[in-house]
């Protein structure tokens, strides 16, 4: 794929960080720009964005002058992973009824928090695929899943097993054979506003075009077990597309489930 932008390093970066930046620039077929303590906004004006900035702990991307950085982090997946490892409990895993060896497709990857739990739950014999249409989100999350080192070794191993595909979910689903995966999962931007710095930053880069109804139709054809939708509790999409709602009284979002095994 062809990417826009350039790679640079943080100010006063050590030589190993600069070396990592050059390797990423080569991997992504982007120019590497020597920082020389210049402000990111100045480099964006001169070179054009987005700017991928390699630091000691993460890769940040700045879309344009004055924008907030976007970066990968397991976020809540860390706490959820610990609960799963110790108690085998997670609402998302339960909604999807994930078992060892299953194949799950996340059609709206975003920061990939849920696919990390999916990968833990289905184990080494399973397969987790994340679809992401945004070039920037794909680039940051794919690299993050492959290189981020958390304090949980099982979570690190689970992240490495996730396959991320830069594609439009609507087109990808159309091309898949019938009953070729176990679960297709959707976590689109909520119809209702939810206050969160992470969501606001993600919105800068997300792509929301597509025929959601057609995606649900194709997901029902492609999945063997379930199609699952995570959405705001006030969302009209649950009723509109025939999801059975798994009500979560203490949460702002619910899970909607289309159980394909019950239809047989």
Automatic annotation (TrEMBL):
Ranges that cross the membrane: none
InterPro entries assigned to the protein according to its UniProt record, in alphabetical order: 16SrRNA_methylTrfase_J, SAM-dependent_MTases_sf
Gene3D superfamilies: Vaccinia Virus protein VP39
Cross-referenced CDD domains: AdoMet_MTases
Highest taxon of the lineage: Bacteria
GO molecular function list: rRNA (guanine-N2-)-methyltransferase activity
A matching Pfam family: SAM_MT
PANTHER family listed in its UniProt record: RIBOSOMAL RNA SMALL SUBUNIT METHYLTRANSFERASE J
Record's protein name: SAM-dependent methyltransferase
Lineage of the species this protein comes from: Bacteria, Bacillati, Bacillota, Bacilli, Bacillales
């Amino acid at each position: 794929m062809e990417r826009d932008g350039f790679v640079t390093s943080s100010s006063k970066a050590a030589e190993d960080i600069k070396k990592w930046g050059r390797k990423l620039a080569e991997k992504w077929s982007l120019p590497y720009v020597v920082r020389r303590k210049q402000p990111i906004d100045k480099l964006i004006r001169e070179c054009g964005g987005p700017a991928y900035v390699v630091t000691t702990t993460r890769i940040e991307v700045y879309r344009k002058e004055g924008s907030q950085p976007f970066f990968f982090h397991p976020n809540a997946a860390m706490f959820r992973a610990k609960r799963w490892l110790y108690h085998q409990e997670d609402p998302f895993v339960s909604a999807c009824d994930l078992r060892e060896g299953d194949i799950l497709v996340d059609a709206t990857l975003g920061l990939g928090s849920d696919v990390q739990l999916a990968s833990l739950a289905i184990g080494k014999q399973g397969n987790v695929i994340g679809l992401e249409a945004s070039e920037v989100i794909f680039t940051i999350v794919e690299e993050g899943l492959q290189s981020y080192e958390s304090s949980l070794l099982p979570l690190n191993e689970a992240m490495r097993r996730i396959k991320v595909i830069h594609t439009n979910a609507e087109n990808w689903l159309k091309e898949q054979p019938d009953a070729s995966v176990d679960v297709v999962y959707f976590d689109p931007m909520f119809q209702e506003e939810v206050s969160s710095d992470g969501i606001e930053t993600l919105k800068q880069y997300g792509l929301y075009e597509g025929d959601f109804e057609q995606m649900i139709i194709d997901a029902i054809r492609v999945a063997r077990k379930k199609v699952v939708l995570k959405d705001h509790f006030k969302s009209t999409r649950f009723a509109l597309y025939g999801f059975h709602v798994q009500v979560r009284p203490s949460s702002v979002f619910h899970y909607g489930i289309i159980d394909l095994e019950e239809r047989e």
